[in-house]
Write a structure and sequence with these properties.
Layout: E1 14-23, E2 29-37, E3 40-41, E4 50-56, E5 60-68, H1 71-88, E6 90-93
Antiparallel strand pairs: 1-2, 1-6, 2-4, 3-4, 4-5
Length: 105
């Protein structure tokens, strides 16, 4: 039996990191951090599978691992996961100003 991808409390080596602004069902504006980590081989996986850690702050506030048969497949699965969340949001805008920041983007 394969042990599966390890759990990470955070992503230390991101390949993509952004903040999205969006509106909830009540018209309130929110900002959420979206991070994709670098694909990594699953330790001791008999099939040689890879995983890509993902955090979508408002929807998945923990790090989840999207698995693939190789590094590109794992990254594509992670990007697809993020894209599905993007399309579920109302008035979404990438490159939002992070909470607590005075910089405008």
């Amino acid at each position: 039996m394969n042990p599966g991808p390890p759990h990470h409390a955070s992503i230390s080596d991101p390949v993509a990191d952004d903040f999205w602004s969006f509106e909830d069902d009540h018209g309130r504006k929110h900002v959420s951090r979206v991070t994709l980590g670098r694909p990594v081989p699953i330790p001791q996986d008999a099939n040689g599978d890879w995983y890509c850690p993902v955090v979508i702050g408002h929807a998945v506030p923990i790090t989840v691992s999207m698995v693939g048969v190789g590094p590109v497949d794992a990254l594509l699965n992670a990007a697809r996961f993020v894209r599905e969340h993007f399309h579920e949001l109302r008035k979404v805008s990438p490159r939002a100003t992070p909470p607590g920041s005075t910089d405008s983007k």
